[in-house]
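Please predict the structure of the following assembly.
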Amino acid sequence: MLNPLAGQIERYMDLLSARQKLVASNIANVDTPGYRTQDIDFQSEFLNAAGRGTPHTIGVPDLAVKNDGNDVSLDRESRLLAENALRFNLASNLMRSQLRLVKSAIQEGKS
Amino acid sequence: MAPILPISGVPSPESIRPAGQSKGGGAFQDAFTSAIQNVEAFSQDATASAQRFLSGEGEELHTTIMATQKAELAFDMFLQMRNKVVSAYQEVMRMQM
Amino acid sequence: MSLFSVLSIGASGMQAQRVRAEMLTENLANAETTRTPEGGPYRRKDVVFETTAAASPFASIFDAQMNAPGGVAVSEIVTDMGDPEKRYLPGHPDADKDGYVAFPKVDPAADMVDLMGTARSYQANVAAMSAVKDMIQRSFDLFR
C-alpha cells in the first residue's frame, strides 16, 4: 500500500528518536561523576535493514574526560540535539507527503 | 424438397449452463480480496501499536500514528473499491434488457 | 523507550542543576560567615550526582529492566568537614584566645565559575526538553 520509502522514513524516525533520548540523558548527566557519553551508530543501524528493534548503544571515542571521570561535552550534545530535531522535522514532512500521495490516489478513484 | 426430419428433443433445462464468470473479472477480484485482507491486517496492527503505546512499553508515538494512518488508508481503499462494485452493479441493473 | 520519558529525563536534569545552583549560591553568600547556629564558621557544601533510571508515570516495569539510560538525581549533599581557614584578627568578636578567627574555606571565584557552568547545564536541559516536545508535536502532525 505505502511504498518501501515510507518504511525507511519510519525507521529513520525511530533511530532519530532513540538518538535524541541518549542526547537528553547525556545532557542531564553532564555533571555526574564517571558518566560516559552514550550514542548509537546511526549509519549502520539505518543500513541494517533487518533491524526493527532497539538500536545498540555505544560509547563515543575521542572525548575529553574531566577530572571526575565524566566525558560529556555540552557543545557536542547541543549540536546533536539541534541536528536530530531538524532531521526529524524533515522526515515527518516527507512522511506526510507520502501519506497524502496515497490518500489522493485513492480519492481520485472516486468518480 | 428436403425430407421432413423428425424434431430433435428440446434441450433440457439442466444442460443450459449459466454464463459463468468472465476471466476478465479475475484481476479486480484479487485486488478486492487483498483489499479486504489489508483492512483486517492493518487494523490489527494499529490496535496492537496503540495498546503498546498506551501501556508505556516504549512504542514511539510516530509509529502508532503511522500504523493508524495505514489502517485508515487501507479502509479508504476498500471503501472505494466497494463503491465501484456497487455502482457497477447498479449500472448493469439499469441497462435496458 | 518513548520520547515521552525523555521529558522526565530533562526535568530531572533541571532539578539536579537547580539544587547545585542553590548550594553554590549558599556557599557564595556565606563566604565570610564566621558564626553559624551549629557553632563555628560556615562549612562549604557540594552536591554529588548519580544517574537514575528514566522514571515516568507511563513507563512500564519493562522499561526499567532494560537498564535504559536515564536521568540524574542528587545522591548526596556533602559538607566540607575539613579544618577551617584561620585568619589573625584579634579585634574580631569571634576571635579565639590567640586572636585567630575561623573562616569558611570557600573559594568564591571557583564557585562563581561553577555557578555559570550550572546555568549553562540548566539551559541545555531546557533546550533538550524543548526539542523533544517539538518532535512529539511533529509526530502529531502526521495525522493531518
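Chain A has one domain: 4-104. The longest strand of chain A covers residues 38-40.
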